[in-house]
Amino acid sequence: MTKRVYRWALPLVVSVGLVAAGAAGALAEDIKIAHVYGKTGPFEAYAKQSHTGLMMGLEYATDGTMEIDGRKIVVIEKDTQLKPDIGKAALAEAYGDDEVDIAVGPVSSGVALAMLPVAEEYEKLLIVEPAVADSITGGNWNRYIFRTSRNSSQDAIANAVALGQEGVSIATLAQDYAFGRDGVAAFREALEGTGAKLVFEEYAPTDTKDFTANAQRIFDALKDEPGRKFLFVIWAGGGNPISKIQAMEPDRFGVEIATGGNILAAMKAYKELPGMEGATYYYYEIPKNPVNDWLVSEHQKRFDAPPDFFTAGGMSAGIAIVDAIRKAGSTETEDLISAMEGMEFETPKGKMMFRAEDHQALQPMYHFKIRVDPDVAWGIPELVRELKIEDMNIPVRNQ
């Protein structure tokens, strides 16, 4: 299907009045979607990408009409400010006062965990994108939660494939909250049976700027281990631990730094690590499919830059919403749940599928190796191997 180009002005989308202009009499028929996410705060860059992707996903899936079966799509934005209590209140306001049909977000795993009970209370769907912690579709899950984002287990299993070999010793550095701790727990489990051993775990506050003490503890734990030694970093937002620890010359102790994918700005630090291996959720040059071709082409035209890590995730959420409403023939919650359990949909990464047991989107991941090009501002993750849905045994953690 040929996609029409529909150009939306991002700053104007927040105005419900603009979207609904001329349709006041049919306002009740509009499809209302709340994007509840951290527009301000440390993850602002992630949030902007996620919203751009969501709007492009809705556009792509509706052929530029921003309508489904004649019903206009209205997107309402709410800022969590990266605070769990504000996120919880904003979601309740969206469901209660704004009477939205579906909500999407948030950026932070900690905020997401606070929001999950609100979806259950109002019996309305929350599509989690891009928060990652396993507990979102694990121990804290309820049946009103679907997630297009990858989870910690998908990250962990993919990175265990990249790093886990006989005789390898690994230490981890992660942020001391749900994203980091769930990520390390899943990584530890994923390493079992690979021959590698996890010898040390280091956690640091999310606002850490000086990693000297953290790095020293890691070096002390690894320096006497035989064989190949890795420091695997799980980090989101600011702080830039990779560059700071690399400046401390970990190779003195035979320690190599490894990490997963990230946004392009963060991958500037990867230029210092040619040959580094890891696994990523998305990099715009890796997937080869019509959805990604459209995203890359249109994003480049509109923003003079390629789509980033969380742009692809937001687009996946937008496509999933449109496909689900069309399949259900309704925006009623129970109809949507029935339609979405087991639903397959095409995204910039290719096929995703909502697993019926926990509503986690199963999806491919990408084992990469960093290549440095002097003309590119970031380290380029070149594909080593695509890990398909069937290649990864992602645990169901809500039982």
From TrEMBL:
Residues 1-28 form the signal peptide. InterPro entries: BCAA_transport (IPR051010), Leu-bd (IPR028081), Peripla_BP_I (IPR028082). GO terms for biological process: amino acid transport. It comes from the Bacteria. Keywords: Amino-acid transport, Signal, Transport. Residues 31-371 form the Leucine-binding protein domain. PANTHER family: LEUCINE-SPECIFIC-BINDING PROTEIN, PERIPLASMIC BINDING PROTEIN OF ABC TRANSPORTER FOR NATURAL AMINO ACIDS. Belongs to the leucine-binding protein family. This is Leucine-, isoleucine-, valine-, threonine-, and alanine-binding protein. The gene is braC_5.
